[in-house]
Specification:
Helix content: 40-55%
Number of domains: 2
Number of strands: 4
CATH topology of the largest domain: GIY-YIG endonuclease
CATH class of the largest domain: Alpha Beta
Order of helices and strands: HEEHHEHEHHH
């Protein structure tokens, strides 16, 4: 019996539904955003510093939708999987701002603002300097890490995150006021400290 391969049908209704939902989120995050050309700025600040991604778009809404549904760029993953957009319920998300320009101005303006914010000390999520001609690499594309490097980097990030949360939101104390509880508290704070010398870092990375 001849098998007939069934073609998977595209659910356009579902696609349009997702598109509408994302556009609604974008309008709440940035009421000025529309389908016109311009430069968009995604800005976020945390204990590690100020972070920014700057891009150009012929259609600002469509470009942002592609970021929020994509998985190709560092900013895509941060928007769709990690941080999301800033809101009253998501204070750690990316703040979205836009500036309108003529389509023929986009390359020049993108390169200008990337250089401006880079000079101001922002951590740029952009890989290249912007525009279409004469682009230069401003960040390295991160290669795959070894298992050991991943563990070490994970511990470093965990320390930073915990220190930030404790400093901003928490008061840490012991259940009882005695020596053993105080030792446990001291050990906890020692775990939050970075290794003080290369040998300690090497030992930690080999655990």
């Amino acid at each position: 019996m001849e098998e007939i391969e069934e073609k998977q049908e595209i659910d356009y209704a579902e696609l349009f539904k997702k598109q509408y939902k994302i556009e609604k989120i974008l309008k709440i995050a940035c009421p000025e955003i529309d389908h016109k050309p311009g430069i968009y700025f995604l800005i976020r600040e945390d204990h590690e510093g100020k972070h920014i991604y700057i891009g150009k778009a012929v259609d600002l809404i469509q470009r942002m939708v592609s970021h929020m549904r994509g998985y190709q760029q560092r900013i895509d993953i941060s928007l769709s999987k990690k941080r999301g957009l800033y809101s009253k319920d998501n204070k750690d998300g990316w703040k979205l701002n836009i500036l309108h320009f003529k389509e023929e101005e986009l390359n020049e303006k993108e390169a200008y603002y990337i250089n401006l914010y880079k000079s101001a000390g922002y951590d740029l999520y952009n890989i290249e300097s912007g525009g279409t001609t004469g682009k230069t690499m401003i960040n390295q594309r991160l290669g795959p890490k070894t298992y050991t490097e991943g563990i070490a980097n994970g511990k470093t990030k965990l320390r930073k995150d915990l220190n930030y949360i404790i400093e901003k939101y928490l008061v840490i104390t012991t259940k009882k006021d005695n020596i053993s509880h105080q030792k446990a508290l001291n050990k906890f704070y020692m775990l939050l400290k970075e290794p003080e010398n290369p040998e300690e870092k090497k030992e930690e990375s080999q655990e």
